[in-house]
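yo, Mannosyltransferase is done. seq:
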Amino acid sequence: MKLSWYHILCVFRIIFTLFPQTGYIHPDEHFQGPEIVYGDIFNFKIHQAWEFTDEKPIRNIVFPYFITGLPSLLANFLGIKYLHGTFLFPYFMLSRSNSAVIFYKTYMPPRYVLGLTESQKDISIHDFAGVDEDNLKDLLNSLILQSKPQYVYAIIPNEMSIPIQNLSIFQTNYKFVARKCLFPHLSTESLPKLSEVINVILSKLSFWQKMTQIKKFLSIHVLIFKRNA
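structure:
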């Protein structure tokens, strides 16, 4: 019998189920417990399993809190709530119709990670990668003049936020609505300038002001524009 990837992965599944841990084979114990903790600490909307919500619960929340609660509290204190900021992008969308999502000088995840399906044709996603600013202007002009999206979401590193916001196509046709900063994020296509970070560290700002500025350098920024009426 010819082995397929399915059979190989099944063997790996059995090995990693039986040998590294001695708990239940069903993976619910690894997800439902931490999910309750993350919902409480990070204020995420979650689904509580019936084991915790029944009048006579069969599972205790103490152990998940003991195991994942302390690291989660530390992560929440540091502002680290997710590994990749764009995964939370759908929560910031003001409209899910007639919108353009632009990624520039940062990683563009697949549509399903953004919570978008192929059937949502009125939401277009564009990866402008690392094109230079002149080509970026031409691409944006072409996109906006042809499709005329109601909302434009520019997902960019920190240093590109001001240049993008000051583009003439946005100045004349759109109103700047909001900026969202998602920490942590480091784009290898647009690394923060070391000199700027050092200047902040050596400045006379307070400790918390320095931390706020450094977090801004290490964040992904979502600029939201709405088309003028």
